[in-house]
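Minutes, project check-in
Item: structure for the 373-residue chain
Input as provided by the requester:
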Amino acid sequence: MRKRAAVFLIAVLPALALVGAPADPAAASSDYQRVIDITFPVGGPVTYSDDYHAWRGDGTRRHQATDLYGAKLQLVYAARGGSICRITGVTEPVGAYGYQIAICGDDGLEYHYVHLNDDRPGTDDGQGGPEWAYAPDLRVGTRVARGQWIGYLGDSGNAEDTEPHVHFEIEDPGLEDPAISAAPYMPDRLNPYPSLRQAQVEGDVGGGVLRAGSRGPAVVDWQRQLNQVLTDDVGVDGVFGPATHEATTAFQRAQGIDPDGIVGPVTRAAMVRAIGSPATTPVSSDGARPWPGRYLRLEDPLLRGDDVRAWQQRMRERGWRDSTGGPLAVDGIFGPESDRACRLFQQERGLTVDGIVGPATWQAAFAGVSAAT
């Protein structure tokens, strides 16, 4: 396996100030290093470096992208809203770079997500198909909202012999920067690294900041939380539509927060205070351990607690193992290995495969006996 070089940054960074504010793409097209206002496109812990100038193609070209390394099947999110203008394996062959999505952004830039997953869960078989590469119902022309779940991190195409990652690239057709105007550079490629750092500093991380148009498991989780603190029921459909926006602004007003309808760090902190300690439920008649009232999933920062430890212990008792074949760790931290075990278990039991330990997944884990996997 080819090892990546340079110094890596953990996905959660301290609030460091970067020079300059995010630029208006239409107003600035002469600086390949300029900061673009984006959502960090991977949920959960990743490592990455400023590898824009790294050599590729046996020294014939520069990388001109940022590789975000993580665990297979981590969720990948849209950095900006727009329309899908390319999706391999759906409307065209997969090709040398594997499963990839290109989103033609509403800001006039193109955002590319390359080497998405091609394996079935728990394998390296290359047989996952579009089902395990992309979020459902995506095709050329599909509208995608900023922060919407679009796919799974992986190692498809010519990344098969590397560690799992998503190659994230931003193209600006109007870019005119003399520093990259000639070979071995392509003249339309921005350096994503400064924009990625800025997104983390602002806490705008995929699956973390939700807004109108967001979709996916993180929205389901938020809708369920709203239903715990509001009198009006919010439909739990994973779509941040008008009803969810209205409920979010109502919650923000009640908490004395600017009612902008955006679920960021301040609003999430208020929800934690509003919900309080995880709810408890009576022990079931069969003696199974009750669901603790908190949805366990891969988040940034990672979820920790006795409820995570209890679920890991139960999965380990069932014979579930990590990706190396060793016993699943019981450390009380819901990391990539716990996410992987959760998804495989859900697939085995015919549950919705979303990596979230909610009531159904918890009950299935603590009832009966599962075959070791």
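Outcome recorded: Helices lie at 193-201, 217-229, 242-254, 265-275, 306-317, 336-349, 359-366.
No further action items on this chain.
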